[in-house]
Amino acid sequence: MLVTALVAALLAAWGFSGWSDVRARQQAALGAPVHAADERAADLARELRGNLDGLLAREGDRPYFHYQNLFHDPRASEGNSVAPSPLAAGPGDPLVLGYFQIDAKDQVTTPTLNDEVPSLSEPTHVAEHKAFRDAVARELSAALAPTSGPTVAIHEHHTAAPVQHVEVSANAYAQNLNGNYIYENNAMPTPPKPPSTTTHTTTTIVQSDTVRVTVAVSALEWRTLPFQGAPALVAVRDVGTPDGAFAQGFVVDRTTVTSWLAAHAGDMVATLAQGTGRTEIAPGWLLTIAPNPRALAAAAVEAHAIEHGFIVRFALVGSAAVLLAALIVLLVARAEQLARERSQFAASAAHELRTPLAGLQLYGDMLADGLGDPDKARDYARRMAEEAARLGRVVSNVLGFSQLERGNLSVDAQLAPLTDTLRDLADRAQPALDRAGAALALDTPPDLRARFDRDALTRIVGNLLDNAEKYTRGIDDRTIDLTARDCGDRVEVVVADHGPGVREPDALFKPFARGVGADAPAGLGLGLALSRSLARAMGGELRYRTGDGGGAAFVLELPRA
Q1: Residue 245: its pLDDT value, please?
Q2: How far is CA 307 from CA 13, 27, 321, 432, in A?
Q3: How much is the pLDDT for 199?
Q4: Rounded mean pLDDT of 513-530?
Q5: What is the distance between the alpha carbons of residues 400 and 532, in angstroms, rounded to a whole number?
Q6: Distance (Å, rounded) from C-alpha 61 to C-alpha 220?
Q7: 486: three-class secondary structure by DSSP
Q8: Closest of 543, 550, 518 to residue 528, by C-alpha
Q9: Which of 210, 241, 433, 496 stands 20 to 30 A from 389 (CA)?
Q10: Among the ranges 42-46, 201-205, 391-395, which has the highest mean pLDDT value?
Q11: Has residue 461 got a pLDDT over 80?
């Protein structure tokens, strides 16, 4: 019980701690692809955020008049001169889908299109540019159109971005305002006479090159607006001029961003979603990366392998521990059994040896001192010989069992006359059996031969006859039958009695075990075990059966050849 409790406690402790470790390792294995995807998302978000911030910074430095198809550079001469905008050929940055400008009347213009001078429009993708402008007019103008009316201020409710006030000459301002006319006529239009109530209008400003005009330009800021059926990232700024306010900006090309993410995400799946977090690439935009399904499947296989490996190890080690515990218990039980058998053997041996020794001492003293009937001296000597033979059988059984335990019990079986040997054994045993009140009946066919060892056969038959005499004491019919018969390829020698028989036949041939009750005559319990070993060493067998008329019958089988 102590060994079982100890093994169970150790296995339970190992199972609990080991299973906790398995679960932790499984969670780490299953979470590894997700963690790698999160780290990759953070890295790509940081890189893409840097690209977008750089784009916003570059576009924030762009002059407001670049958003027109034709512009006049204030740094050039004050003469009449306009040139195509740097944006007229289309966006130069792959992240930009297109640029736009919206006035207070919701009129949308783009640098790539010139409706008054169609030849100045970008010729290779006119349809795409018109579709972009129409989409801006349809989906963005309502949300981005500035307040109508001439102003140089940007209303606080319209933008919270920092505002920069830029001063340009009136001539440069007017040329940017009338780029198409200057391109076609190389001259400024003749201004009409202004009303008396109008002061500081464009027409009056143009009359003097010394007059300065202030243009207010806010910083670009990101906004998320629906565009072409999906949320889009739009950079917007407000421009305030004496002739009105404008909303300028550009739309980020989501296809370019998606392609860039697909190229940099490797075997993972990258998507853009709205929200905030550590993978934010712009206000309100998150980058999410999902692990590759193959990586998730491999992680699941690894997690299963971790669990399976622990179960196999636990089963193997647990089985080994249980087996070892069982061996320990078996060894302890065997040691206790051996201790009991030694104690029982010592007591039985003392009794078995004391009886013949007492007879030897008694008859020896009588002969030595001249006691008893002098006419029975020969009988006394014969009894001493019988007690010595009995003592010899006890000692022979002990020595034989010792040889059996050491594994060096050997016989020399030879083909010999069995009938003559049995008759000789019967003649030698008859006197002792007669004096014990038992009769021996020999029944054997003439000229019966078998393969046996004479000494081994003598030991076996002697033990069987001695047991038959011992366990039939007090029985009316004390006849012991010794028979032999031919059974084809074998010969059977049977020793049978008419006693009470055997209560526990299964225990007969075990060392120190006896198949009778506690009230039976004393014995060592070695004779039958040794006899069966000798029978098997000769190639035969010794077995028990109930006699025909009751009692016990022991059958010795010997080979014919």
Answers
A1: 92
A2: 17, 11, 20, 76
A3: 36
A4: 62
A5: 12
A6: 9
A7: strand
A8: 543
A9: 496
A10: 42-46
A11: yes
Shortest CA distance to 280 belongs to which of 44, 60, 37? 44
The three-state secondary structure class of 432 is helix
CB contact at 8 A, 51 and 313: no
Tokens of 332: 């302890």
Task: State mean pLDDT over 41-47.
Answer: 93
Structural tokens at position 439: 């009769």
Q: How far is CA 258 from CA 56, 114, 263, 271, 287, in A?
A: 19, 31, 9, 7, 10
Of 490, 475, 392, which is closest to residue 439 (Cα–Cα)? Answer: 475
Task: Give the Å distances, CA to CA, from 153 to 142, 166, 173, 246, 546.
Answer: 20, 12, 17, 11, 128
* Whether CATH 3.30.565.10 fits 410-559: yes
Q: Where in the chain is the domain with CATH 3.30.565.10?
A: 410-559
Predicted confidence at residue 190, as pLDDT, reads 65
Residue with tokens 């407001």: 64
Phi-psi region of 310 (alpha: psi -120 to 50; beta: other; left: phi over 0): alpha
Distance CA 346, CA 525 (A): 12
- 445 vs 340, higher pLDDT: 445
Q: Which two tokens stand for residue 544?
A: 């028990």
Residue 205 has a pLDDT of: 41
